[in-house]
Design brief:
The structure holds two protein chains of two kinds. By secondary structure, chain A is α/β, with parallel strands linked by helices. Chain A has a single domain, classed as Amidase signature (AS) enzymes. Chain A has helices spanning 8-16, 22-40, 48-63, 106-114, 156-163, 180-186, 220-230, 248-251, 274-289, 305-320, 340-351, 354-367, 373-396, 419-424, 432-435, 463-476, and strands at residues 43-46, 75-79, 117-122, 169-174, 189-192, 212-217, 260-264, 293-297, 399-403, 439-447, 450-457. In chain A, helix 2 packs antiparallel against helix 3 and helix 5 runs parallel beside helix 6. The termini of chain B are far apart. Chain B has helices spanning 15-24, 31-48, 83-87; strands at residues 93-94, 97-98.
Chain lengths: 488, 107
């Protein structure tokens, strides 16, 4: 048995029956990371000492059989936009390269209370701006299935790490596909939660009205175990929802027979890679065999999802990133500055990469007097229509199924010269975030030897239903269990 | 749909406009960067004109993502972060003060 290859479920069984200790498991995972990550570059920071310290504490809990959760003693890592007290948190940006948060994100506190073992921080597109992880200011992350290809983005480090067995799960963050798209590219199960289901306190904001933290793991079962620990209202995040938290693990085994699954016809247009489409069609057939009722539905404003998403993103990101000015934290370039404006100009010129600069400027542009109505306000109105599309669809079905991306993972460098082409790769994943609905990415096949992901989309707070459908599918198929050679 | 298919006159943001916006958002940029950004911005903004196809006459703008209610919490005094923890990341300090270059007027 190679401990780093275990799922959360399997490891929990071995930990609670004392067949392995958390220190042994954590050491095995760290050894595997030190051996494998030089090929993948998924990690910005690996926290060996901190990890082993937490593993020893978890072992005490396990020995006393006290206060044990499904995550006690389980090693995990998080996308580097989630604040960790005393542990560098960079957003893969030069401007935060040496920033050490004085507090934890609420999700980190909750996982720590559950006894999970934090082992490191994962690479991403700078501030979450990108679809390939190539906008990291530090290095590119490679797809473990083919090192010449991108892992997707922006949670690319997290997806690559989970696929390569470097950590039993990860927390990603999804602003417009940033969990699901890389999960699909790397054969990982990933959940974008309902906006407000998981506290955003301590998450370094990209788009405050879109950002959702969620689990990336080996299966829907494992995602359910993680969600159970991190979901729920938090007084430190006024947008977190007070609604009761279901017992996600218990709900998994409810039969899916009779559930209605909608196929949004706008998501099956020309331009999709043949192998992607055939994998999704086979999955739909599997759902039918499982007794689900399949019906075609329409989300008529789908084409407008991408411009709405990017317009609102630019506007909100431009405002959110105003805080990085070299005064209170982060990089500061004040040499030769005659006044404070010079310090701002110099710090932000040196601290931000080109994509971040592009989006900050475009945000200011679409918010400026004379353009606000034509761009930002127009986008917010179409956003209402996008949301109504989903509401109408969910009157006819319990969940929707669609591809996460029209293609499998593309080559490193293939789209870096043309930002608009890069934006278009997000076409299937962006509409959910302006609407705030949850979506689960489930591996469903391979095309030209690269993984294909499908997403199940549900109404607000229906994570339990999505996980239940994902679990039923994964109990009947084994796509999610396939691992690349480097994961051994 | 890609911008080339949208049948609209090419939209243009020139380098001077880019430099103006860059200054407003406090980003120092060079002339050649402004030139490159100007081409990219024109293509991206032009793509957004796709939204003009949608009739949004009576549609209210979205102002919330979930059905968030107004949140109040009891006015209870709680310890806040120790000052030293808060100041640890400040790049330029003088004692417990944050130091910045000149803000108003001449020296």
């Amino acid at each position: 048995m190679q401990p780093h290859t275990l799922s959360i479920r399997e490891a929990h069984e071995l930990l609670t029956t004392k067949q392995i200790s958390s220190v042994e498991l954590t050491t095995a995972v760290l050894d595997h990371i030190h051996k494998t990550d030089p090929l993948i570059n998924a990690f910005v920071t690996i926290a060996d000492e901190l990890a082993l310290e937490q593993a020893r504490l978890a072992d005490q809990r396990l020995r006393q059989s006290e206060d044990i959760t499904p995550l006690t003693g389980i090693p995990f890592a998080v996308k580097d936009c989630i604040s960790t007290r005393g542990l560098r948190t960079t957003c893969s940006s030069k401007i935060l390269e040496n920033y050490i948060p004085p507090y934890n994100a609420t999700v980190i506190d909750r996982l720590s209370t559950a006894g999970a073992v934090l082992i490191g921080k994962q690479n991403m597109d700078e501030f979450g701006m990108g679809s390939s992880c190539e906008n990291s200011a530090f290095f590119d992350t490679h797809n473990p299935w083919d090192l010449e290809r991108v892992p997707g983005g922006s949670s690319g480090g997290s997806a690559a790490a989970v696929a390569a067995n470097m950590g039993l799960f990860a927390l990603g963050e999804d602003t417009g596909g940033s969990i699901r798209m890389p999960a699909g590219f790397c054969n990982v199960t990933g959940l974008k939660t309902t906006y407000g289901r998981v506290s955003r306190y301590g998450l370094i904001a990209l788009v405050s009205s879109f950002d959702s933290i969620g689990p990336m793991a080996r299966s829907a079962y494992d995602c359910a175990a993680v969600l159970q620990s991190i979901a729920g209202q938090d007084l430190k995040d006024a947008t977190s929802l007070p609604d009761p938290i279901p017992d996600y693990l218990k709900m998994l085994d409810k039969p899916v027979k009779g559930l209605r699954l909608g196929i949004p016809k706008e998501y099956f247009q020309a331009g999709m890679e043949a192998g992607v489409e055939s994998s999704i069609r086979e999955a739909i057939q599997k759902f039918e065999e499982l007794g689900m009722e399949i019906r075609e539905v329409s989300l008529p404003h789908t084409t407008y999802g991408l411009p709405v998403y990017y317009l609102v993103l630019f506007a909100e990101a431009s405002a959110n990133l105003a805080r990085f000015d070299g005064t209170r934290f982060g990089l500061s370039v004040a040499e030769g500055a005659e006044n404070v404006i010079d310090q701002y100009l110099q710090t932000r010129r040196e601290g931000f990469g080109p994509e971040v600069k592009r989006r900050i400027m475009l945000g200011a542009y679409v918010l400026s007097a004379g353009y606000y109505d034509a761009y930002y306000l127009k986008a917010q109105k179409v956003r209402t229509l996008l949301r109504q599309d989903f509401e109408a669809a969910f009157e006819q079905c319990d969940a929707l199924v669609a591809p996460t991306c029209p293609t499998t993972a593309f080559k490193l460098g293939e789209k870096t010269d043309d930002p608009l082409t890069m934006y278009l790769s997000d076409i299937y994943v962006v509409a959910t975030n302006p609407a705030g609905v949850p979506s689960l990415c489930v591996p469903c096949g391979f095309s030209n030897n690269m993984p294909v992901g499908m997403q199940l989309i549900g109404k607000h707070l229906s994570e339990d239903v999505l996980l239940q459908i994902g679990h039923a599918y994964q109990s009947a198929t084994d796509w999610h269990l396939k691992r690349p050679a480097v994961s051994k | 749909m890609t911008p080339s298919e949208s049948n609209k006159p090419a939209f243009s943001i020139d380098a001077d406009m880019v430099k103006h916006v860059a200054f407003l958002v406090r980003l120092g940029i060079q002339d050649e960067e402004a030139q490159a950004f100007s081409h990219q911005f024109s293509a991206i903004i032009d793509y957004f004109h796709l939204l003009n196809e949608v009739d949004t006459g009576d549609v209210p703008p979205a102002c919330e993502t979930s059905n968030t209610r107004s949140v109040m919490r009891p006015d209870v005094i709680k310890p806040s972060m120790p000052r030293e923890d808060f100041l640890k990341n400040v790049p330029h300090r003088e004692g417990d003060y944050v130091q910045v270059p000149l803000v108003f007027g001449e020296e």
